[in-house]
Amino acid sequence: MTSVGSARLYRPAAGEDEKWPHLAPVLSTRTVDWDLIRHQRGLEQVRWDR
Question: Which residue of 10, 14, 32, 49 lies most exposed, with the fewest beta carbons within 10 A?
Fold first, then answer.
């Protein structure tokens, strides 16, 4: 289990740090992989359509 103090949030996009200055201590250097999420959502829809 990860403690809250060591958890990190993925950034929604690169270069937008000024939008969330108070979150800087908990933001990861990585960004959300939106293409992967779109792909996974597409697979879920295929499963539910059956």
Answer: 49
